[in-house]
Write a structure and sequence with these properties.
single chain, 78 residues, alpha+beta, two-stranded antiparallel sheet, 2 strands, 33% helix, 19% strand
Length: 78
Amino acid sequence: MLYKRLGDSPDEIAFFRWNLKNKLEKYGFNKIEIIPFDFLHPNIPATFIQLVTSLGKILEKVPLIKEIAGSLYIKAFK
């Protein structure tokens, strides 16, 4: 499976911000802001970290592509 080859652990799960937003709203949160960021994977060789970090900052601004970023900033109020 792809996850094993990439070094992801079995307890990791992918989140999609629209699903997460719906769940937060269901539990009474509002003013929800979810921002995808970070394309740097732990198995990136050290020689490519700067390149991937720079490329990631560009990809974080591209609609649809940013949705596959590795992390989410989540801000919500209850």
